[in-house]
Amino acid sequence: MPRRFLIADDHVAIRRGVETLLREEFPGCEVAAAGTQPELNSRIAAQRWDLVVLDLSMPGRGGLECIGEIKDTSPSTAVLVYTAHPEEQFGVRALRAGADAYVTKGAPESVFLQAAHRVLEGKRFITETIAERMAEYLTQPASASPLELLSDREYQILRLIGSGQSVSEISAELNLSVKTVSTYRKRVLEKLNLHSTAEMIRYALEHDIR
User: What is the edge-to-edge ordering of all strands in the sheet holding 101-104?
Assistant: First the structure.
């Protein structure tokens, strides 16, 4: 039975490039694409996929939430996060959310294909960088970065505010109330010992959160 792959990315060029890689590596495979989160959810609910190649930056609630939704709907589907975000930012969070692999778009094609093969075998693909971050967190939780104290949603709010978006803009993008976004913003300020939006933006810039 041919492998079935779903590519979830809002950039057409990326989808086409990934599709080409998969078709060359897995002859006879079936490949489909989703450019939005609602389209992704619809395709996941409609049929079973062996592998979802997921970008974390599609417009909407956030890629980390998508991972959980995919696993809840189809536990046997492997999720390979393929994103521009550095491993240091989202690698561990993505694996905690249920991802089976995390590969950056700047990695060689061979790494992407190695990850695809590994997760299709029912295993996880973890790079050395992510393994080191996980080991640091497990062995030295008390000295972990304050960023580790943030929930996935709080981290997302920090990232969006750091990019210059207002609370109302974030509310519209994530389909959350302004009050809810403001609550998350307040929690971020408290956990990072910050006192204003300006300090949040400066913190995000200093820690390359994007």
Answer: 30-34, 4-8, 51-54, 78-83, 101-104
What is the reported pTM?
Answer: 0.75
CA distances in angstroms from 116 to 112, 119, 121, 170, 207, listed in the order given:
6, 5, 9, 33, 30
Report how far apart, in Å, the C-alpha atoms of 185 and of each of 140, 159, 204 are.
27, 11, 13
Cα 63 to Cα 12, 28, 68, 82: the distances in Å are 17, 29, 9, 11
Question: What domains, with CATH codes, occur in the chain?
Answer: 4-136 (3.40.50.2300), 146-206 (1.10.10.10)
Percent of the chain with pLDDT over 70: 93
Q: Cα–Cα distance between 193 and 55 in angstroms, integer?
A: 31
Where helices occur in 26-62 by DSSP H, the ranges are 37-46
Q: Rounded to whole angstroms, how far apart are CA atoms 55 and 84?
A: 8
Cβ neighbours, 10 Å, residue 7 = 24
For residue 61, pLDDT beyond 80: no
Cβ atoms within 10 A of the Cβ of 89, count? 19
| Residue owning tokens 């974030």 | 170
